[in-house]
Amino acid sequence: MRCPYCRSLRTRVADSRLSREANAIRRRRECLDCKRRFTTYEKVEDITPLVIKKDGRREAFNRSKVYEGIKKACEKRPVSIDDIEQFLDNLERELQESGKKEVPSTLIGEKVMAQLHQWDDVAYVRFASVYRHFSDITEFMEEITKLAAAKENKKPPVAE
Questions:
Q1: Cα gap 159→140, rounded to integer Å
Q2: What is the DSSP string of the chain?
Q3: At 102, is the pLDDT very low, low, confident or very high (cuts 50, 70, 90)?
Q4: What's residue 147's pLDDT?
Q5: Cβ(53)–Cβ(60) below 8 Å
Q6: Is the pTM of this model over 0.70?
Q7: What tens digit of pLDDT does each residue of 40-95 get?
Q8: Cα dihedral: 86, 87, 91, 94 (round 10)
Q9: Contact predicate 112/51, CB 8 Å
């Protein structure tokens, strides 16, 4: 490891421990030439599949983009940030473990909608209205009717 101060390659590890999130190893290092200390983090490089958008474009999975959409849907609703973070951790892990190089954005959107349906109906409808591009009140009412019917039958609403 190169010292960030004097650029020497002669360093030693003074201390190692897991990071707070337990997803990396935090190492305190000391440069043997300038004697200054610095911290490095070692973690496994995660390879998440590309997301195929509805228009055919491909882009890297962006956790913060999904997080912002969920957070906006859950605004002023009884859904904790910890629940959202846990869901995103699981989603990201599932995508990585799938072994696929590409996944359709609809797969991610449907997984988010299914989770929101379990958490909170209002958050679910908010997200669905943006995700499904409701163009008028009729489409919005149809989704609410499906939601109400599904709630009576205790099943998540079916995507069309």
A1: 14
A2: ---TTT--S-EEEEEEEE-TTSSSEEEEEEETTT--EEEEEE-----PPEEE-TTS-EEE--HHHHHHHHHHHTTTSS--HHHHHHHHHHHHHHHHHT--SEEEHHHHHHHHHHHHHHH-HHHHHHHHHHHTT--SHHHHHHHHHHHHHHHHHT-PPPP-
A3: very high
A4: 73
A5: no
A6: no
A7: 988 877 778 999 998 999 999 999 999 999 999 999 999 999 999 999 999 998 99
A8: 60
A9: no
Q: Which residue type is seen at 87? A: F
Residue with tokens 């973690």: 43
Q: Which amino acid is at 40?
A: T
Cα–Cα distance measured from residue 113 to residue 123, given in angstroms and rounded to the nearest whole number: 9
